[in-house]
Amino acid sequence: MLVEVYQPKSLSPSRLDKLLAGGWFRTSSSISRLQYLCIDGTVGSVINIRAKLSDYQFSKSFRKLLAKNKKKFTHIIRKASIDEVKEMLYQKQKSRFEIFVMENLHVFLYDYLDARDCVFDTYEIAVYDGDRLVAVSFFDLGFQSIASILGLHDQDYQKYSLGTYTMLLEIEYAKAKGFTCYYPGYVVLSNKGYTFDYKLRLANLEYRDILGEWKPISEVESEYWIHQVLEEKKQAIETLFEKYNIDCQEVLYPYFAIAHFITHYQCVSTAIYFLISERHHQQLILEYLIEEATYRVGYVSPINDIFIEMMVENVKLSDKFITTSHYYKRPLKYEEIVLETISLPQAIAKILELKVFEG
């Protein structure tokens, strides 16, 4: 499946190990697995990575950074907690997030649960300059694995690379405690290159391929990723639109994941679609359904549902996404599915027919 979301009611350390190895990562109080997302004005493939720790060695530059910052700062490793200073760091840094932004640090880590009810065993590394908290990172403990969740740092200390520093401290802690795998999350690969590529500077990296196997990171670009499938389909669509003089607009749709866990609406389910025309507050669109390998033509409109509106309000698009993307800002449902077909020419013919009918 392209998108999966799971909210565990209990979670043992060994179970977390298995989920991490299966490509899952924590999203607030849930755990998710997805193959692609909207980012940096385009669609990118999600690539899960991990570092094997059994013979892990820091590079010379990382050893230098660790030594330099340990002289300048002190750090504490302890059970995670939230206070006003950490919340302030979160609020100052969330404008730099790439896609979605939780309203506050508590929601980011725990959703609307009490922290005591969270099934994850979350720790933090707090970095201090004297009495001043200048960085904090949060990570979850499994049985043999640890998973990095979030790093925050004071922008006044930018020159000290505190985001990288806390990541290295997490690895150092994991090695000292005998953990075998460190999961820094994922990178995103698109036709613009990598996002979150700072993670690729780590040693002993593996990536999880499209079949679920872990391979050396050196092989990552030999794969045929989801964004490449979509790019090929997009080019084919654009070629035929140009041939038949069909005006259209390519639209990023960051809310595509809603279709995979809300079943009482027939929702737009892909991260990019083509807007062809509008009538009576409805849009005529064409989307390519990856899992079904079909093209869908239909009329869509915004979902007017209090529950979904609350979801969107609580998890807003980041400022960075808004300024780099042409996107539709509300979840969409189908009012009418006109055609689903494996044939792109057939889909184009139906669009031409509908445009004649619309006048």
The CATH class designation of the largest domain is Alpha Beta
Largest sheet: 11 strands, mixed
Q: What's the CATH H-level superfamily name of the largest domain?
A: Gcn5-related N-acetyltransferase (GNAT)
> Can you give the mean pLDDT?
91
Number of helices: 9
How many domains make up the coordinates? 2
- What CATH calls the topology of the largest domain is Aminopeptidase
Q: What class, by secondary structure content?
A: alpha+beta
* Through-space gap between termini: 39 Å
Q: Tell me the Rg in angstroms.
A: 22 Å
Unreliable stretches (pLDDT < 50, length at least 5) are: none
Number of strands: 21
Task: Output the helix-strand order.
Answer: EHEEEEHEHEHEEEHEEEEEHEEEEHEHEH
How large a portion of the residues is in β-strands, by DSSP E?
25-35%
User: Approximately how much helix is present in the residues?
Assistant: 25-40%
Basic shape: elongated
Corresponding CATH architecture of the largest domain? 3-Layer(aba) Sandwich
Protein name: Arginine-tRNA-protein transferase
Pfam family, one: ATE_C
Organism: Thermoflexibacter ruber
Keywords: Transferase
